[in-house]
Design brief:
- There is one protein chain.
- With 207 residues, the protein is of the alpha/beta class.
- Helix content is 33%, strand content 19%.
- A hairpin with a 4-residue loop joins strand 5 and strand 6.
- The chain contains six helices and eight strands, in the order βααβαβααβαββββ.
Length: 207
């Protein structure tokens, strides 16, 4: 069994201003570094073998801070984990973007289907490269929501900065274990599974 913790990066200055970042390379702020440290403390309750991130600096720094709590060095970056490109909307607030393009169709935006496809391919590549391992991968909210929505079929809640989502791969397919640290209700079909209010127990690969 391969375990994966998908972690959203910590807060940036643009996050605090509600500016759309997308593929713009914006660094963490002080709050984001503290959030990354808290995520590292939570993940330290499990056992982890591999640490990777998106190529963007906010994800890389988050991973490096987490690594200090796990005694792991980031082994590399994966381009498939990069955030969705928001085209001309990058750098403006979400309110400004809605005012200009109320349909959400920003000029130059990366199609959601493409984001989902490359995100799932990145997860599959990690599982293939590190079978039977416990992997921490630091990515971005939009990409995480796209991937989890495709795997489970229910509306995914907002992914806060430095939130942890856990998955496992049995050699054939991915299963979602927790979203934002809350356990997925296993009693319901995958396309109807909401998030329950209980936390997953600590163990190998489970934050």
């Amino acid at each position: 069994m391969t375990h994966l913790a998908l972690v959203r990066h910590g807060e940036t200055y643009w996050n605090a201003l509600r500016r759309l970042q997308g593929s713009s390379d914006i660094p963490l702020n002080a709050t984001g570094r503290a959030q990354a440290a808290r995520a590292g403390s939570l993940l330290a309750a499990g056992q982890w073998d591999v640490l990777v991130s998106s190529p963007l600096s906010r994800a890389g720094e988050t991973a490096d801070i987490i690594g200090t709590h796990l005694n792991l060095t980031r082994s590399g970056t994966h381009p498939g984990l990069t955030e969705r490109h928001f085209g001309e909307a990058e750098g403006i607030t979400d309110y400004e973007a809605w005012d200009r393009w109320p349909d959400g169709n920003y000029p130059g935006i990366e199609p959601r289907a493409d984001v989902t496809r490359r995100g799932l391919a990145a997860l599959d590549d990690l599982a293939e490269r590190h079978p039977g391992s416990a992997i921490v991968a630091v990515s971005h909210g939009g990409l995480i929501r796209s991937v989890i929505g495709a795997l489970h079929g229910w509306p995914v809640p907002r992914i806060p900065n430095a939130a942890i989502t856990a998955l496992r791969h049995d050699g054939a397919r991915w299963a979602v274990v927790t979203v934002n640290g809350r356990e997925v209700d296993p009693a319901l079909p995958a396309n109807r599974a909401p998030v329950s209010g209980t936390r997953s127990p600590a163990g190998r690969g489970i934050p």
